[in-house]
Design brief:
The chain is α+β, with helices and mostly antiparallel strands and 759 residues long. The N and C termini lie far apart (91 Å). Helices cover 56% and strands 12% of the residues. The strands form five sheets. Strands 10-11-12-15-16-17-18 form a seven-stranded antiparallel beta sheet. A five-stranded mixed beta sheet has the order 4-5-7-6-8, with helices on both faces. It is elongated.
Length: 759
């Protein structure tokens, strides 16, 4: 169903471009003739369906548009991995395959893809538009809704055709021999078979009908045969000669099937209007009497019955303005309606441009961009199970492995399968769908190979495809990652693992490889910088956070490395992920000014007060020697917006501040950023509860209390301050000055706290 929805979305985009272009071209006056404009609108109406379904119409693997650009071969080293994939998008690949070379030292391969002596062209770079995720999630229901509405529309058209044919079949043939003779003469002159002519007493206008039938209203025969009637007959015969009823049915069908494209109805109206002008020109050419045709149109307009328009038949007074048509008919210049060579050449140029450019614009489901679905686990009897569905910019690789599997040393083929083991891989590249199944057959492995659903022997192209697909699968699915990283590490060291990790495009797999590498031992400075660079290229915050946390837990980071890691943390978008790394790093943070400054810089990028508070608290709970970091953390607290979070963070530092005078002063300074008197009181009491305070700290506390508005909250802090401050006359006088502005009761209670200094 998602493929159907993608086809419809591509049609909507392509047809919109084509129909809007046709409208602009017509409005600009570049194409003036009726025939040219009609050809333009017909091409625009039909071409969207062709370009949107071009991959389905082209022969498999033809690469018709490959000259526009190339794509990276599978397995080739990619120093700058592509972005925009959440989990495991595959490296970009080119179509076809013949030869593969493997680097046995590192266990990875690079692939050269060709077919015989002729290189297959690569897919072009594309403007890839992604459906909204909610649309992709409901693709099945939306496709069913489209089908239901389209089915109703087609049924209505078929019903209208059937009803009209039945109505026409019941009408009496025209008995006017002059009318029949005139139509026969005009038909013979233009190499046409004479249509059936019937009289319709309920119709208000002569009409050309599907089935090669002309209907004439009663009023047109009332005055006998005349030049206007001859012009009328020529006009309607012109509709039949031009196949206008058929085109009207085609336009109606497209409007019904692609009902979500309103521009189709615009195109149908324009084609209807141009059909009338074209039939007018045909009638003038056939009769040579433009004045008679103008009189006929005027009479038809007078006799037209409102509300009885036929959607699939072509009445003489149709979509085009009658006055506009009469003006054109009476013009002295000839109405040219025949197609010229320049029209066909122009159409060929436009068609070529559309077929080259529009297929580059592709609408895909959300899963096509957002990468891979990887499922791993163990079966009932402990057997290993891997299921992978990898997507990247139109490239699709799906695979499933059950049971124990052993790959060859170059990792380009399956060497053995455990009992009951099986594996399959399938991939579509440039319209070529390949699938291979590995099944244990006694002591050997049977390989069942298919191309576009047809079984065939595993030829050189198939073997090269397998040699490219297996490393991609192993790499992007993180299959047996720990063991594979250990094997590469034993052969090529840390550098070999880093090179292989750089080839991985998927975030999940890259995270898994980096974590496995970190767990193998210490990295030197250069290796850590390279690993950190690969981590920075991971766009998923969760995956990047997981790698950073592993680095912190497994590596002994010097201050400069901690600064580098903190810079990567600052680039995370999620405050939760930032806080998670900061919490792991907090006990290990070096008590250095540059580390503290970078830690504060990370904190400044966080918008959530809760996450910021948790990160600040983590430092408070760290090692006892981190005074510079704690001072930096306290200084960052005023930047929070929530008074509750400020107080919650500060009280965690109360015990540390009580043992460090400079930290205590920073603590009290931070309380002055708290607007809530209750929260400020709790913060100050948290510090006072830790023990005595010196004169300088007590003075700072009194300054903070003096800014409070609530006498109750002031009194509570003043009483505790009086109980712990030294007997300093200047300090006592400052205390009394703060209490002096309070109400009598609260002031008396505060003054009572000074009684300890009375004796």
């Amino acid at each position: 169903m998602s493929a159907v929805l993608e086809l419809l979305a591509n049609y909507l985009v392509h047809s919109s471009v084509l129909l809007c272009s046709a409208w602009l071209v017509e409005r600009s006056g570049v194409v003036r003739s009726v025939a040219g404009r009609e050809l333009l609108w017909r091409a625009a109406l039909l071409a969207g369906l062709v370009t949107a379904s071009a991959p389905l119409l082209l022969p498999p693997g033809s690469g018709a548009f490959g000259s526009m650009g190339g794509r990276q071969a599978a397995g080739a080293l990619s120093p700058e991995p592509s972005k925009g994939v959440v989990v495991g998008a595959t490296p970009r690949q080119v179509s076809g395959s013949v030869s593969a070379s493997a680097n046995r030292e590192e266990g990875v391969g690079t692939v050269s893809l060709s077919q015989g002596d002729r290189s297959l062209p690569a897919m072009p770079p594309r403007l890839q538009l992604e459906m909204p995720r909610v649309v992709a999630e409901f693709a099945g229901w939306l496709a069913l809704a489209w089908f239901a509405v389209a089915l109703v529309g087609i049924f209505r058209i078929l019903h209208e055709l059937s009803r009209r044919r039945a109505e026409v079949a019941r009408l009496q043939p025209c008995r006017d021999v002059r009318v029949v003779a005139c139509v026969a003469k005009l038909s013979a002159a233009h190499g046409l078979s004479a249509p059936r002519i019937v009289e319709d007493p309920e119709s208000g206008s002569p009409t050309a009908n599907p089935g090669w039938v002309l209907t004439l209203p009663a009023w047109s025969l009332r005055d006998g045969f005349s030049p206007p009637l001859e012009a009328t007959l020529a006009h309607e015969l012109g509709h039949l000669a031009r196949r206008d009823p058929t085109w009207r049915c085609v336009a109606a069908a497209l409007c019904a099937i692609f009902w979500f494209q309103p521009l189709n109805r615009l195109a149908a109206r324009r084609l209807g209007a141009l059909a009338e002008l074209g039939a007018d020109g045909w009638a003038i050419s056939a009769t040579g009497n433009r004045h008679a045709l103008a009189q006929s149109l005027f009479r038809c307009a007078q006799e037209l019955v409102p509300g009885r328009e036929l959607s699939l038949a072509v009445p003489m007074v149709g979509n085009a303005s009658v006055l506009h048509r009469i003006e054109r008919i009476l013009e002295e210049r000839q109405m040219k309606t025949a197609l010229k060579l320049r029209h066909w050449l122009g159409l060929a140029a436009v068609a070529f441009g559309a077929l080259v450019i529009l297929p580059v614009i592709v609408v895909t489901g959300a899963t096509a961009k957002h990468g891979t679905l990887i499922e791993t686990g163990r079966g009932t009897f402990g057997e290993r199970h891997l299921k992978a569905d990898i997507n990247d910019n139109g490239l699709h690789l799906a695979a499933e492995i059950r049971g124990d599997v052993t790959f060859n040393q170059a990792e380009t083929d399956i060497e053995s399968l455990g009992r009951g083991g099986e594996a399959w891989i399938e991939q579509t590249i440039n319209g070529v769908a390949r699938r291979i199944e590995f099944v244990r057959d006694g002591n050997r492995i049977a390989r069942n190979y298919e191309v576009n659903g047809r079984a065939q022997p595993l030829d050189a192209a198939g073997r090269a495809w397998v040699a490219a697909a297996i490393p991609t699968l192993i790499r992007e699915s993180a299959f047996d990652a720990d063991a594979r990283v250990a094997r590469i590490h034993s052969r090529s060291g840390v550098d070999g693992v880093l090179i292989e990790t750089a080839r991985i495009q998927g975030h999940f797999a890259r995270r898994t490889y980096l974590q496995a590498l970190a767990s193998l031992g210490a990295l030197d400075a250069a290796q850590f910088d390279r690993a950190l660079g690969l981590t920075r290229s991971i766009e998923s915050d969760f995956e990047r956070r997981s790698v950073l946390a592993t680095f912190v837990e497994t590596q002994t980071l010097v201050p400069s490395q901690q600064v580098s890691l903190l810079r990567v943390v600052a680039a995370l978008r999620s405050d939760f992920e930032k806080r998670s790394v900061l919490e792991v790093l907090a006990p290990r943070l070096a008590d250095e000014p540059e580390v503290a400054a970078q830690w504060v810089a990370v904190l400044a990028t966080m918008k959530s007060d809760f996450e910021r508070r948790e990160a600040v608290v983590a430092v408070a709970k760290g090692s006892a020697g981190s005074r510079a970091l704690r001072a930096a953390a306290i200084s960052a607290i005023p930047a929070m917006g929530s008074d509750f979070e400020k107080r919650s963070a500060l009280t965690e530092y109360a015990s540390h501040a009580a043992r460090a005078p400079a930290l205590a002063l920073a603590y009290v300074a931070a309380t002055r950023s708290i607007d809530s008197d209750f929260e400020r009181r709790e913060s100050l009491l948290g510090l006072l509860d830790e023990g005595s305070v010196d004169a300088r700290l007590a003075g700072a506390i009194l300054e903070s209390v003096d800014e409070m508005q609530s006498d109750f909250e002031k009194r509570a802090v003043l009483v505790q301050t009086a109980a712990r401050m030294p007997a300093d006359p200047a300090l006592i006088e400052r205390y009394r000055a703060v209490a002096r502005g309070m109400g009598d009761y609260e002031r008396a209670q505060a003054e009572k706290g000074l009684d300890r200094f009375a004796g």
